Amino acid sequence: MPRPGAGPRTTPVASTDAAMKHLLSADPLLGALVEAQGPLTDEQRRRGRPAEAYGALLRSIVGQQLSTKAARTIFERLIGLYGGQTPAPEQIVATDAEELRGVGLSRAKAAYLRSLAEHVIDGELKLDRLDELGDEEVIAQLTAVKGLGPWTAHMFLIFHLRRPDVLPVGDLGVRRAVQLAYGMEDLPPAAELERIAEPWRPYRSLASLYLWRSLDNEPG
Q1: 76 partner at 20 to 30 Å CA-CA among 17, 31, 70, 169?
Q2: What is the DSSP code (8-state) at residue 198?
Q3: Is the pLDDT of residue 33 over 60?
Q4: Which one-letter DSSP state was computed for residue 103?
Q5: Angle 148-152-154 (CA atoms, 0-180°, nearest 5)?
Q6: Active-site position among 131, 171, 186, 216
Q7: End-to-end CA distance of the chain, in Å?
Q8: Is 171 a catalytic residue?
Q9: How confident is the model over 180-203, as pLDDT tens digits?
Q10: What is the rounded average pLDDT of the residues 104-123?
C-alpha cells in the first residue's frame, strides 16, 4: 500500500538561472554566497530529507531545535527501527513510545510523531491534497496538528512542496548564516531577518538553501 503523499515533488524551488541571477544582483552579501557555491544539485536542495510528504514531516519533527548533524543522526536511528525505510503512519502508532525515545527522541517529539500518524490515518490531514493549497493554507493545515508549528510548516513548504518564496524566520541555521554573512554581533530577530530578506523576493526559499549550505563547512 503506498504511503500517504508518497509521490516525490520534482518541481524545482525556482528556475535556477532566473533565481540565481536575481539573488546575485539583489544583495551583494548574499550574492557572494551564491557565487561561491554555484548552482545547487537536487540532492543539495533536499539536504537529506525524504522525498515523500509523510517522511518529510517526520524528519522535520525530529529536527526541531536541533543542529542539522544531530537531527540527521537521530532520524537515521529512527528509520533504522524500520529496516532503513521511512515508516508508515500505522508503524509509528504500533511502536512503543519508549522504543521511539530510545533513538534519541524526547518524550514530546515521540508524542508528536504519534499525533501526526493519527491525523494521517484518521484522514484529518490529507497530505496528498496539500499541494493544491496556497502557502498560508498549508501552514494552517499543518499547524493544526500537535507538534507541527510554523517552522515545521516552512520546512515542508521549502523541501517538499518546493514553494519558491518561503522565509523560515524561526530557523536558527538561517539566522546564524545571516549573522555571519552580514557581520552582525547577534542573531537577527524575525523582523530584522524579514527586512534583510526583502530584496530576495520572490526567491527567498533558494536564498535560505544557500544560507544553510554556507554553514555546512563551519567549524563545530
Answers
A1: 169
A2: G
A3: yes
A4: T
A5: 130
A6: 171
A7: 42
A8: yes
A9: 999 999 999 999 999 999 999 999
A10: 95
Overall residue count recorded for the chain in this entry:
220
What pLDDT, in 10s, does the model give residues 48-76? Answer: 888 899 999 999 999 888 888 899 999 99
Domains in the chain, CATH or no CATH each: 16-45+166-214 (1.10.1670.40), 53-159 (1.10.340.30)
Q: Please give the Cα distance from 72 to 51 (Å, whole number).
A: 15
* Distance of alpha carbon 37 from alpha carbon 19, whole angstroms: 14
Q: What are the DSSP calls for 117-171, one per residue?
A: HHHHHHTSS-GGGGGGS-HHHHHHHHHTSTT--HHHHHHHHHHTS--SS---TT-
Q: Provide mean pLDDT across the span 3-16.
A: 47
Measured in whole angstroms, the distance separating CA 58 from the mean position of its chain's CA atoms is: 10
Query: Cell numbers of 182, please?
Result: 552580514
